[in-house]
Amino acid sequence: MNNDITTARGNDPIHIQTPLSTDICSSLSAGDIVLISGDIYTARDAAHRRLYEALVKGLPLPINLSTATIFYAAPSPTPIGKVIGSIGPTTSYRMDVFTPTLIEHGLRGMIGKGNRSPEVVEAIKKYKAVYFGAIGGIAALTAQCIKRMELVAYEDLGPEAIRKLSVAELPVIVINDTIGRDLYTEEQDRWRTISES
Amino acid sequence: MENKTGNVLRRIKSQRITATVRKLFINANTILSADVISALRSALQQEESPIGRQVLDKILENADIARREAMPICQDTGLAVLFVEIGQDVRIVGGDLREAINEGVKQAYAEGNLRKSICDPLTRANTQDNTPAVIHMDIVPGKRLKIVAMPKGGGSENMSAARMLTPSAGIDGIKKFVMETVEKAGANPCPPIIVGVGIGGSLEQACILAKKALLRPVGDTHPSDGRLAQMEAELLVRINKLGIGPAGLGGKVTALAVQAEMMPCHIASLPVAVNIQCHVARHREEII
Hints:
heterodimer, A: alpha/beta, fumarase, five-stranded mixed barrel, B: alpha/beta, four-stranded mixed beta sheet, 8 helices, 10 strands, globular
């Protein structure tokens, strides 16, 4: 994949490898372009509800949340001869009600699109996690970063099942960092001012 | 066979409808139409934010890959929405029309490797075949059958809204509601977006008008109502000053177009609906 995104400030992309330690998370700032490599999990609405309910009831989870990264995504079916179908972020706010609990139990990286709730931003700060934004609607391109896919839990959820993805240089941008910054707000405010002047 | 107006009825086989629906949904999901590509290219010229330009570049690159590899442009291959116009001198033979359409949707989503995204609203159990489709049927004069297939993504649909304004709110009230809805949506619906606006009718009719407005070629001004053409142009300028930008990462292009449709309403009401469409604006049509 063509990894030529640079930030408005012109930083070079930062390569990181999962699992994400709190040190890695703390080293990232809102606006950093990051290329993620390693294993991540897909989970969205229905899988989040199940993970959350298991945590609340103290039941074992089908995946180890500690230092894990979750991609809010459900791929399209895999065509013959490919590793995965098209894949990209779904809107993150729907996971907000479950996310602080997941972060408390070890989740460190989240990849999605759109704003998070104040509770999620606070949990990211408190537990030293990170929220990455991915570009929506470029799913055939994003699929090229996925090298392996394995179904790991909740098969009955179909596209919403949890899958383990091995990714290589998946391009994302840091939205919410460990000091509580929010890239969407900062950049949108900046461009609103530019547009109005 | 003749109908009561004396016109000879044209027979259309339900199997042909199924095959057409299947083809339209596969093509809509893998081939971004020329008007959208052209609007994205113009956006690229207009965008000043470096990251915004790169997002637009990637959107265009993705459209190329999707078409070349017959992959879905977006993993959310949508709820299957259809607008079907049935000529009053058409007779469907060989099966039930609604079943024929749903069968076409099933085949498209199974054979085209499209994601099945439809579930029970309460249990959230997936229906496994992306049906039932949402089908808007209309009877029109003539002997033809027109099918418009519109896979609609959930993220942008979630950011849509309808409101019953008071008549005194007028066109300023309509504009205010559109601006509020777009601003609140922010990065969520995958900007640059297309904003469909439906004005008048009833609650549900305003929503249908807003969705139908999205079927117009992107960037064309309203063909028959100068008031709407003017409102569309003004709102587009205002929306693109919000700063949301491509992917919500800041920039000058938040929307590619504002497209409105209108019809008369009750003396007590001013229904308005805003249907937001992501940049993967997909619809295909065929006339049988």
